[in-house]
């Protein structure tokens, strides 16, 4: 096919779409099912209608080929485990008894069976459930869900392409099952897994699939020769089978690198590449292998992870370069649109001109369709769209929101000493022990307590004018009093005020900082039924006034025990926002750090002796390629130190991280120079404690003993067993006892029982230590 004919044949497609619905109908239906208010048939009906609505929106917008299989009740990696029969033994009976309840048991756990471990999906804030595999794993094909979704789309008269997690990525994401040797490599199961994938592909072809997409994002990471050989073998096997649909192998989030020639040579009919995160690298690599003659190329030229309008002329130039490198070039977003909100036009509180800078899933779909039209018919066919796009880009570039001279002058004046504590850790630790007088194995929580219906109602009442600010503050004051009273009665050593006034750990601060925009309907899935509204970091950042001092000092007035001040760190403020793309991330992080530094100093001046600056996103924002790590970690750790370094030696700085693979960044954790770090550890059985010990981490740490992402209540014996395992790696004088994460999403009954058991476990192990 010539370049001209390839352009004329250009089609628009996407890899996935937001699942929740405009009003988060899926979340409400699932949570209603868990609580017994919605039966299984009603839940399935809601899911069916949401899929139908999504596909119709895509088709009506001009998308030629809609995805199926991207929809999930909880997580698409968990769906893949079900598809290949990788059910943990502890959940097998539940799945056999009731497939839907067993599915949710794997995700959330039961009182008798722990859930699958959860961690971040590459460098996003989406969490997936980690497959558990071992040498005895037996895979069996179950394509029921995938075939049903395809059939529903085809019945609507749509051209549909099933999307599956590819076999290599699935195995690379997996971990050894409990009881399996830690050095077991799940990739050794590839030859056992491929026939199962082949059967699923056959089932989908029989059901009417012309194409199936196999997602292999793990191949954009650094891969060993053995792993690349495994990818070559996998697609030589699947591509060599005759009873299958055409195969489109997709990668995203970064450059494909050494895996590109492997996939280019594979007997598959198409590749999908990201031309936003690594446009030049993927372009050069594609040209270097001689293109994809005879194959389909799906070009991800619209960024699927940010919310800024695309530069359409730049994207068209990229697409033009790709013509002639493949038999057919189609247009898509760089990845699934799962990572952005649904529709920017739903926002009523953002200035109309600024709103034109934003593109959520529906707007990105329109951009994809426009680009496909322009590629096929020439720029004259989209002249009006290009003119409007140029005006929107110019409006943003020239806005006063994006450039504050005072902020830029302050960041220019920062010196290296601004990011260094006045004394080394051993001297600080002695001063803190004398000042705080905490017991061995001190107990605390991560920060938030349950956000009750009463609290959410109070916020809604305030917004609707049913109560005034004085009435709202009285409710917050009462909630803080109850939280402090409970913690004192339970016996926790370092208390928190519970964050009753906070809607979200990033949004709360964003709403009080200049340069941020807040949305009303910008919901994005974080995990399961947990949806967040990431704020939009649009301009230069400053702090007009104190944000947390009032409620922290009020809580401290209710108790003689120390109450932690609670802040969200600069990297997490960036990672869990839609951050500006018109300056380096390091510059934006420095601006946020200086604003937070003012808050840290104000908390200390108000008498707060323990201040926690959470950085759960430090690991998730780590670039996917090792060669890019040093630059990122240098500015990320410097931003944290800039936030925290201005305090006295006897003020104890905590940080917190959760649900990521921390072994890769232990040196960076050390470089933060926090006095205490708390980390998720319950589902991974204290793995992070061993990683800290292996590094020689010299400061205090609290690996979690209570998994808060499950409704189950861990017994005191279970928590004590985890604590003893932690003591095998971390000396008692440096070990804290705490949950994995904040308690915002939990209910009060399970929170009370779990924290009481946590304190009991700490006391039990303290007694054992004193007797030894």
Structural features, described:
The protein is α/β, with parallel strands linked by helices and 772 residues long. The radius of gyration is 26 Å and the shape is globular. Helices cover 44% and strands 13% of the residues. The protein has 29 helices and 21 strands. Strand 18, helix 25 and strand 19 form a beta-alpha-beta unit.
Please outline the helices and strands.
Elements: H1 3-8, H2 25-34, H3 40-61, E1 66-68, H4 76-83, H5 89-97, H6 99-108, E2 118-120, E3 127-129, E4 132-133, H7 144-155, E5 160-165, H8 167-173, E6 175-176, H9 190-206, E7 211-215, H10 225-240, E8 246-250, H11 259-265, E9 270-274, H12 279-288, E10 292-302, H13 312-322, E11 326-333, H14 352-355, H15 361-377, H16 383-397, H17 405-412, H18 425-436, H19 453-464, H20 469-490, H21 507-510, E12 514-517, E13 524-527, E14 530-532, E15 536-542, H22 549-556, E16 564-568, H23 570-575, E17 578-579, H24 585-605, E18 610-614, H25 629-644, E19 652-657, H26 666-671, E20 676-679, H27 687-695, E21 700-703, H28 716-727, H29 748-771
Parallel strand pairs: 1-5, 4-6, 5-7, 7-8, 8-9, 9-10, 10-11, 15-17, 16-18, 18-19, 19-20, 20-21
Antiparallel strand pairs: 2-3, 12-15, 13-14
Helix pairs in contact: 2-3, 5-6, 9-10, 10-11, 13-15, 17-24, 19-20, 24-25, 28-29
């Amino acid at each position: 096919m010539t370049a001209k004919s390839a352009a004329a044949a250009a089609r628009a497609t996407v890899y996935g779409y937001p699942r929740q619905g405009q009003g988060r109908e899926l979340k409400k239906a699932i949570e209603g099912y868990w609580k017994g208010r919605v039966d299984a048939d009603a839940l399935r009906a809601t899911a069916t209608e949401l899929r139908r609505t999504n596909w119709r929106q895509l088709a009506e917008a001009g998308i030629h080929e809609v995805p199926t299989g991207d929809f999930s009740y909880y997580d698409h990696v968990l769906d893949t485990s079900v598809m290949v029969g990788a059910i943990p033994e502890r959940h097998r009976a539940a799945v056999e008894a009731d497939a839907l309840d067993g599915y949710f048991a794997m995700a959330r756990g039961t009182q008798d069976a722990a859930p699958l471990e959860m961690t971040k999906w590459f460098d996003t804030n989406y969490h997936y459930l980690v497959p558990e595999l071992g040498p005895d794993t037996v895979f069996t094909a179950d394509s029921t869900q995938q075939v049903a979704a395809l059939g529903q789309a085809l019945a609507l008269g749509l051209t549909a392409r099933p999307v599956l997690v590819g076999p290599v990525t699935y195995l690379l994401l997996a971990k050894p099952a409990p009881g399996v040797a830690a050095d077991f490599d799940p990739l050794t199961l590839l030859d056992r897994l491929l026939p199962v994938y082949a059967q699923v592909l056959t089932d989908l072809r029989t059901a009417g699939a012309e194409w199936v997409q196999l997602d292999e994002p793990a191949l954009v990471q650094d891969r060993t020769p053995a792993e690349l050989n495994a990818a070559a073998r996998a697609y030589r096997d699947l591509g060599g089978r005759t009873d299958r649909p055409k195969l489109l192998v997709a990668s995203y989030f970064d450059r494909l690198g050494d895996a590109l020639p492997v996939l280019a040579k594979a007997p598959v009919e198409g590749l999908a590449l990201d031309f936003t995160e690594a446009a030049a690298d993927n372009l050069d690599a594609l040209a270097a292998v001689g293109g994809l003659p005879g194959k389909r190329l799906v070009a991800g030229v619209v960024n699927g992870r940010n919310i800024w309008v695309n530069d359409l002329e730049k994207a068209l130039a990229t697409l033009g370069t790709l013509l002639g490198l493949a038999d057919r070039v189609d247009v898509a977003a760089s990845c699934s649109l799962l990572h952005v909100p649904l529709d920017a036009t739903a926002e009523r509180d953002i200035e109309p001109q600024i709103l034109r800078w934003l593109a959520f899933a529906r707007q990105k779909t329109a951009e994809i369709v426009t680009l496909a039209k322009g590629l096929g018919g020439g720029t004259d066919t989209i002249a009006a769209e290009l003119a409007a796009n140029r005006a929107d880009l110019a409006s943003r570039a020239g806005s006063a929101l994006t450039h504050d001279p005072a902020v830029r002058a302050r960041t220019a004046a920062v010196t290296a000493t601004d990011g260094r504590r006045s004394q080394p850790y051993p001297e600080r630790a002695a001063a803190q022990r004398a000042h705080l007088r905490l017991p061995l194995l001190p107990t605390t929580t991560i920060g938030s307590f349950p956000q009750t219906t009463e609290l959410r109602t109070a916020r809604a009442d305030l917004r609707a004018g049913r109560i005034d600010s004085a009435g709202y503050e009285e409710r917050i004051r009462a909630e803080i009093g109850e939280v402090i009273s409970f913690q004192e009665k339970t016996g926790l050593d370092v208390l928190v005020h519970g964050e009753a006034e906070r809607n979200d750990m990033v949004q709360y601060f964003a709403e009080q900082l200049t340069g941020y925009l807040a949305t009303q309907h910008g919901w994005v899935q974080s995990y399961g039924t947990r949806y967040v509204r990431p704020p939009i970091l649009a301009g230069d950042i400053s702090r007009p006034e104190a944000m947390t001092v009032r409620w922290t000092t009020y809580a401290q007035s209710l108790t003689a025990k120390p109450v932690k001040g609670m802040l969200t760190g600069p990297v997490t403020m960036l990672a869990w926002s839609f951050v500006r793309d018109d300056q380096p991330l390091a510059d934006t992080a420095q601006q946020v750090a200086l604003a937070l530094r003012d808050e840290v100093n104000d908390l200390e001046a108000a008498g707060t002796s323990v201040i926690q600056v959470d950085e759960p996103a430090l690991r998730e924002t780590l670039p996917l390629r090792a060669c890019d790590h040093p630059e990122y970690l240098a500015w990320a750790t410097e931003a944290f130190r800039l936030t925290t370094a201005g305090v006295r030696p006897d003020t104890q700085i905590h940080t917190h991280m959760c649900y990521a693979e921390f072994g890769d960044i232990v040196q960076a954790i050390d470089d933060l120079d926090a006095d205490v770090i708390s980390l998720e550890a319950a589902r991974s059985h204290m793995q992070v404690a061993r990683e800290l010990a292996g590094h020689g981490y010299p400061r205090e740490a609290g690996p979690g003993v209570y998994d808060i992402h499950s409704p189950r209540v861990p017994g005191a014996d279970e928590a004590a067993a985890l604590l003893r395992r932690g003591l095998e790696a971390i000396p008692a004088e440096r070990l804290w006892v705490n949950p994995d994460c904040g308690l915002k999403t939990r209910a009060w009954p399970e929170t009370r029982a779990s924290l009481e058991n946590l304190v009991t476990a700490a006391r039990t192990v303290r007694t054992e230590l004193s007797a030894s």
